[in-house]
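Researcher: Please translate sequence to structure tokens.
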Amino acid sequence: MQRAYYSSTCSAFVGADKDKILGELTRNHAFELEHLQRNAWIAQINHLKEVLVGTPDAFIMLEYAIPRMGKRADVVLLIDGVIYVLEYKVGEKGYPPHALEQAQDYALDLKNFHEGSHLVPVVPILVATEAPEVKPAPVWAPDLVAEPAKATYSNLLQVIESYQPNTYPPIKPENWISAGYKPTPTIIEAARALYDNHKVEEISRADAGAVNLSRTSAAIAEAIEYARVNKQKTVCFVTGVPGSGKTLAGLNLATERMRAHEDEHAVFLSGNGPLVTVLREALVRDEVQRSKASGQLLTKKVAQSHVHAFIQNIHHFRDENLRQLAAPVERVVVFDEAQRAWSREQTSKFMREKRQQADFDMSEPNFLLSVMDRHDEWCVVVCLIGGGQEINTGEAGISEWFAAIEESYPHWRVLHSHRLHGNAQDRADTAKSVISSDSVVEPALHLAVNVRSFRAERVSDFVRSAIDGDSKGARATLANITNYPIVLTRSLPEARAWLRDQARGSERYGLVASSKALRLRPEGIHVKAKVDEASWFLNDKNDVRSSFALEEAATEFSIQGLELDWVGVCWDANFRWTNEGWGFHAFKGNRWQNINNLTRRAYLANSYRVLLTRARQGMVIFVPEGSGTDSSRPSHFFDTTYQFLQDCGLRPLAT
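Model: Translation complete:
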């Protein structure tokens, strides 16, 4: 894609006709040009022509795309060995924090995701045209991203010159422009960008990860076209390594089909209620905001109707189709985390107790397939298969899907990746027979490249070893994890301070804890008080309900499938290290009880696995000191866990 609307050497820019520059910006602007935007461009062009007269060898780019954020930086300058990212606020008389944060976000995006920017200084500058001058005082972070600088019309050149360290070789524009851009958006950022008509290639890593995603998307699209043409019902099973972008692939499929084939009413379904809530609210807020910018003034209720048709809670989809017997309007449905669908026993129990369906005797996969099977002709079900983070009672695994197909829907065409054979423990004999005899193996349906976090690709291996009780393996893995700090503390205030110190720009941080961590309450962490997920994940630093406030801890149920940049993991005695390995405990009444049931043990271990893999950039683990007087949380319950984590290679925060 074309990153900038306009780019040239500064000498060519200074000598170019203003109207021609404006015309090129206008021509590349895909949206209706507003009067304010045109005037802002004119003001920027006039100003930069004056400022850059003395920098003929520099290079300028106007409206440079930051697709992960769905935005464009006003100006990117390459001057000698430094990158300057300018955010103009024409007519602004001060330096508002949100504008400084925006400029810093652009700089961090380049530093983290653009290969040509990894090793060179990046300086974000807020140009507030009518603000008072502030004397430049360069402050550099270890990764060579400067703290946001403040400039006006009158002193921009002075500010730029004050950030010239003269120790880096000049940047070659052609090399910088052609360098790879490998963004790893959060699922919230990805949903926003895809819903706003960005392509998955624009917001995903431009290496094997993007190729893998594109290949998988193409294979699913081909399967849908085959089903449509041949009037055939089809189910596709998509597998992937942790962090490979299965949910991203599903959202991409749903948005593409929604735009290009409205008659299919493609929908993304998830049983993860908090994920659905947060994604919906993020898209609704964006749609309302875009409508204001375009003068349409869309109401939130109307925006909700659009978004809610695109992303639905799978249980609401189930209940709606329980009430009606007609075929649903959707012909293409994407089930996220399909392996977590309920077993026959769990579904039947729920239907009897909660929906008054006394004779209901189907698993959730069987019922959902029966709903889609109501179509007279074709339909497609896409099942996204993950694993290792089951945390709810009654989650059946993929064997229920294949059992349902063999028992009730042998006429369906089945496609699956070659890696579906990988976990024999989760495969019933009926599933194996379907795989071996009637299904089509499609290697493109496996996502093999981790694209989740630009720093955390090996963190899941570290967490796996720690949860397995393998301190030596964890320590060995941690030794190879760079630029992703994981630290320990016995002080919650110290953990909060560390999180605030680490975050820059709009990077989001928050506290998390196990839903069964009932004895963190003396520390001020009350897990029974459920967070408002939309506010916690989306609201800004001025809102006490947001994660930024560090007042409420999200549990594994609220945060599974979502991420923060920086996470504080609060560790309780329900999962504690002992001489025999991990101890599994539940707090009942006024005392701890051992958990002996193997399934419940797995759920508890997985809850900590989820909590320890939610951070994109780093985390602090808080293990309380315990108490000498409270028998429910004696010090030795926590000391052994703290020591084990140190044995895994984690270092305590310096006090």
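Researcher: Any highlights?
Model: Residues 269 and 335 are 5 Å apart (CA to CA).
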